[in-house]
Design goal:
minor pseudopilin epsh fold; 1 helix; four-stranded antiparallel beta sheet; alpha+beta; five-stranded antiparallel beta sheet
């Protein structure tokens, strides 16, 4: 049976309609895809920061040395686990220096593991992904008993974090993720 001329394929109008519908769907879907991508990147960054805090607590307990996690040092978006030089009551002046996150002055891994030449437990300098920032953060200090402490003015040793905890907030565009750290050292990524 022979097909008539108007039954053989698609008309230009039909092709334009399908293309237009596809373009509309793609136009709606791209912002949603971008939004999902931002959420995934923010979630990954928050999990990495939470993991660094957990590692600092575990290292403080296992090495029997106080450790701090410093945020936005040397620059915004950088963070690092650093071993406290000195004691919680009398920290060395180097612990408050802005270059404490410098990997050239305080390399990772340490040059030696001699307990007399500290720091031995500094971690690598880590970076948040681009467009992700710390909007709320404070240096957290974990003690060998697992408790978490936070600076409060010039008081040494730093007081234990309140039972309600302190928040570390990461932001990417309009989205935020919060990590809660309380005084007993519990680190929790909030939904």
């Amino acid at each position: 049976m022979a097909l008539r001329a108007h039954e053989r394929g698609f008309t230009l109008l039909e092709m334009l309609m399908v293309t237009t519908v596809f373009a509309i769907i793609a136009g709606i879907g791209m912002p949603l895809f971008s939004d999902i991508t931002d959420s995934i990147k923010l979630g990954q960054a928050a999990r990495e920061v939470e993991r660094e805090l957990q590692t600092a607590r575990l290292t403080a307990v296992s090495a029997n040395q106080p450790l701090r996690v410093r945020f936005n040092c040397n620059a915004a978006g950088e963070y690092r686990m650093v071993e406290l030089i000195g004691t919680p009551s009398i920290p060395a002046s180097a612990d408050s220096a802005t270059d404490r996150c410098s990997t050239s002055l305080y390399p990772f891994p340490a040059a030696d593991r001699n307990p007399l030449t500290r720091p031995n437990n500094d971690g690598p300098l880590r970076y948040l992904p681009s467009e992700t920032t710390f909007t709320t953060s404070a240096t957290i200090e974990f003690w060998p008993d697992g408790t978490a402490h936070m600076a409060s003015g010039t008081i040494n040793p730093w007081p234990v974090i309140a039972s309600t905890g302190t928040n570390i907030v990461l932001t990417r565009k309009s989205k935020t993720k919060t990590i809660l750290v309380n005084g007993i050292g519990k680190v929790q990524l909030l939904p």
